């Protein structure tokens, strides 16, 4: 065996050791997480259950999981656990009966980075409550809920309509079957479909989160 073969073998062994170390490091703490989370299929290292989900119709896979593991189950998208709720009673119990505990919203790193976590639309939890309380109090100081503010609203509405006329963005309305309108509509839908897909969630949770760090 020549020196080159020995070096190649050692290099491959080193690469395999590094890969194993990375996988073990990324799966640290998952054992305790499994014990705390609802039941679900065991995730694969690095990718979780991503390749088990039918990207075209993921809801069918979710229904199969709920039939197997119950109305509350867990899947993993990369290293991010996702809880699935199924059935009227379960969803009502989570979102209505215990709405205070489940009133959070998903955090997208790109949006959080651009707003620094502030804003009524981007924030969540206690910060959202504080911002909402402050916004309502400020609007009430400006006359929200009183007849005196009606004239201000109408004046601002007239100014806004005037601004739209000045810009004359398109100059005409679209018919619902207009090809250009359908192209815009499909583009917006495709954007949100990708954003809410498993791949989009993994992108936000893993890649953008690592960039922010």
UniProtKB/TrEMBL annotation:
Lineage, highest ranks first: Eukaryota, Metazoa, Chordata, Craniata, Vertebrata
Gene, per the UniProt record: LOC116221761
Q: Keyword set for this entry?
A: Iron, Membrane, Metal-binding, Transmembrane, Transmembrane helix
- What family is this protein classified in? Belongs to the cytochrome P450 family.
- A GO term from the CC aspect: cytoplasm
Record flagged with keyword Zinc = no
What protein does this entry describe? Cytochrome P450 2M1-like isoform X2
Q: Mind listing the GO molecular function terms for this protein?
A: heme binding; iron ion binding; oxidoreductase activity, acting on paired donors, with incorporation or reduction of molecular oxygen, reduced flavin or flavoprotein as one donor, and incorporation of one atom of oxygen
Q: Which organism is it from?
A: Clupea harengus
Question: What highest taxon heads this organism's lineage?
Answer: Eukaryota
The question of whether NADP is a record keyword is answered with: no
What's one GO BP annotation on this UniProt entry?
organic acid metabolic process
Give the matching InterPro entries: Cyt_P450, Cytochrome_P450_fam2
**TM segments?**
6-26
């Amino acid at each position: 065996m020549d020196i080159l073969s020995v070096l190649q073998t050692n290099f491959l062994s080193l690469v395999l050791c590094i890969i194993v170390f990375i996988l073990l490091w990324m799966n640290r703490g998952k054992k305790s997480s499994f014990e705390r989370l609802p039941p679900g299929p065991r995730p694969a290292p690095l990718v979780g259950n991503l390749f088990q989900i039918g990207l075209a119709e993921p809801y069918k896979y979710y229904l199969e999981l709920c039939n197997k593991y119950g109305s509350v189950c867990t899947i993993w998208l990369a290293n991010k656990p996702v809880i699935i709720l199924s059935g009227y009673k379960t969803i009502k119990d989570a979102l209505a009966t215990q709405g205070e505990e489940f009133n959070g919203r998903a955090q997208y790193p790109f949006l959080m980075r651009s707003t620094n976590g502030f804003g009524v639309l981007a924030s969540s939890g206690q910060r959202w409550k504080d911002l909402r309380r402050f916004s309502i109090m400020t609007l009430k100081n400006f006359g929200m809920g009183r007849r005196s503010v009606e004239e201000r609203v109408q004046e601002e509405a007239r100014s806004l309509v005037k601004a739209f006329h000045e810009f004359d963005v398109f100059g005409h309305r679209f018919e619902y079957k207009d090809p250009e309108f359908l192209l815009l509509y499909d583009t917006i839908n495709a954007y949100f479909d990708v954003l809410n897909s498993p791949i989009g969630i993994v992108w936000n949770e893993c890649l953008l989160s690592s960039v922010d760090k």
